[in-house]
Amino acid sequence: MDKQLILSLIAAIFIGGISGYLGSLLLSKRMALVAGPLGHLSLPGIAIAILLGFNIALGAFPFVFLGVILIWLLEIKTKLPMEALTAVVFASGVAIAFLFLPIEQAESALVGDITQINYFDTVFSSLIAIVLFLIIQFIYPKMVLINISEDLARSEGISVKKYNFLYLVLIAIIVAIGVQMVGGLLTAALVAIPPASARNFSRNLTEYRSISLLIGSVSSCIGVLFFKLTAFPAGPLIILTSTFIFLISLLFKK
Amino acid sequence: MDDNNLLRVNDLTVRLDDRLIIDNLSFVLNQNDIISILGPNGSGKTVLLKCLLGLLPFHGTITWKKGIKIGYVPQRLPFIKEIPLSVGEFFSLKKVSKQETIDILHAVGFEQDIFNRKTGDLSSGQFQRLLIAWSLIGKPDVLLFDEPTTGIDIGGEETIYHLLEDLKNKKWYQAMLLVTHDLNIVYQFTNQVICLNKKTVCIGPPRKVLTPENLRSLYGGDVKFYKHNH
User: Fold this and answer.
1) Contact assessment for residue A112 and residue A186, using Cβ atoms and an 8 Å cutoff
2) Between A27, A147, A156, which is nearest B94 by CB?
3) Which residue among A144, A151, A205 sits closest to B86, beta carbon to beta carbon?
4) Does B111 touch chain A if contact means CB atoms closer than 8 Å?
5) A136-153: pLDDT as tens digits
6) Is the C-alpha dihedral spanning B128, B130, B132, B134 positive or negative?
7) Interhelix angle A35-52/A160-201, nearest 10 degrees
8) By the 8 A CB rule, do B83 and B46 touch?
C-alpha cells in the first residue's frame, strides 16, 4: 500500500467517525438543518485557502464559526424560521465563493479531496477528532435530555442555551474538518446519514451512538478505497457508500 | 416563613407576549398538602408549574423552603419516541445508582425486565409511571405533576393517582402540586384546590370552594358536577 493511501484512510476513519458520532446527537429535526447551511458557508473560506495554499479546514473555520454565531443570535433575537435562514445562508455562501474562486479549482471546494492529504493535515484532523470525541462523550447525556425536553433539562439545572451553543461550535469544527474530505456541498450528509442508518440498526442509545460512529468511519474508508479502484472523486464516493448503507439499514429497521 | 411551609407564592403575575396568563395569585404549600390546580385549557395551569420551576419569567415572589428538592413530571415528552433509548438509559441521564433506579422502578410497579425495554415502545400508562419514577430520583420533597390531557386510558388515570397516593404514604415525597382538569381527581385525592382562569377563581378545600357558582365562573357555562360522599 502506498503512503498516500494510508494517510487518506487514517484521515477518513477519524473524520468520518467523528462526524457520524456528533451526528448521532442531531436527534431533533431542527438541529439537523444546521449542518447544511454551515457547509455552504464554508465555501468562501475554502476558496481563500485554495488560492493562498493553506489548510482548507483552517480557511473554512472562521466562516463556519461566523455562521454559528449568526444562527445562534438570529434564533435568540428573532423568531425567524430556520428554513428562511438556511436558504439565505446557502445561497450567499455559494455566491461569495464563486466571486473569486477560479472555476477549474472548484471541484475540491465543492466535493472535497482527501486523496492528496498531507502528513500534517492528517495528524491535525485526527487530533481534533479525538478531542471532539472526548467533549461529545462528556456532554452526551445532557444533550440527550435537552433533545427530549428543554423544560425537563432546565428543571435539572442544565443551562440549555450554553449547551446548544457549545453544540453549534462542535458542528462548526466538524464541518471545517469535514470539508477537506467531502467539500462544502456534502458535509451535511457526512453528519446526517450515518445516524439515520444507525437508528434503523439499533435498539438503544449505546448501540445507536457506536453504530453511528462505526458507519461514519467505514463508509469513509470504503469511499477512499473505491476512489483507488475507479478514480472517481473520493468525496462523492464516500457519501454514496453512506447512502448505500442507509438503504441496507432500511431492511433491518427495528 | 412558617416551618411547615414548603412553598409560598405571593402576588404571582405572568405575562407572555403581552398576554396576561396569571393574575395576582397567592397561595401556600405546606407539608403533606396535595394541591390541585384546576381550570379549563389555556388557563395558565402548566405556566404556573413552569414558573415554580423557574422556567418562565414572572412578577411577584415564589419562595421555596431552603434546600428543598423538586421533582417534575411533565405533561408529555413527544420527542422521546424518536430517540432509540432504553428505560435504563433514560434513568442514567440523571446521576443515579443502578440500585436506586431498581428501587424506584419497583416502587411504581415495574419489574427489572423493564430496564432494557425501549421507552418509545411503552404504553402511555406505563410511560406515565416511568416519568413519575424518573422524577422520584434523589428523593424530592415536592412533586410537580402535570397531568396529561390525552392518551391515558380511562381506569389508567385512576391507577396513577392511587399510585401517587401510595408513594406519598410510603414517604417517597412530602407534598404535591398537580395540574388537572378532572373534578373527580380533585375531590378524591387533593386537600386543596386552586381554581385558575387567569384570575384566581377560588382557593381552598374542594368540598368548600367548588360551589356551582365558582365552577360556572371557572368554566364559563354550565358544568355537570357531582360531589363524592365518602
Assistant:
1) yes
2) A156
3) A205
4) no
5) 999 999 999 998 988 899
6) negative
7) 100
8) no
pTM across the whole model? 0.87
- The residue with cell 388557563 is B43
First vs last C-alpha separation in chain B: 34
User: pLDDT tens digits, residue range B96-128?
Assistant: 888 899 999 999 989 888 999 999 899 888 898
- The cell numbers describing B147, all together, are 397531568
**Contact partners, residue B2, CB within 8 Å, separation at least 6:** B28, B30
The Cα B122–Cα B137 span in angstroms is 20
**Length, in residues, of chain A:** 254
Name every residue whose Cβ is closer than 8 Å to that of residue A46 and which is 6 or more positions away in sequence: A56, A59, A60, A97, A101, A108, A109, A179, A183, A184
Instruction: Give the H/E segment covering residue B176.
Output: strand B175-180
Place of cell 397531568: B147
What count of residues does chain B have?
Answer: 230
What letter does residue B181 receive in the DSSP assignment?
A: S
**Interhelix angle A35-52/A82-100, nearest 10 degrees:** 10
Tell me the ipTM for this assembly.
0.85
Q: Identify which of A64-78, A83-97, A208-222, B40-54 has the greatest average pLDDT.
A: A208-222
**Residue in B51, B79, B93, B137 to test binding to A, most A beta-carbons within 10 Å:** B93
In DSSP notation, B32-55 reads T-EEEEE--TTSSHHHHHHHHTT-
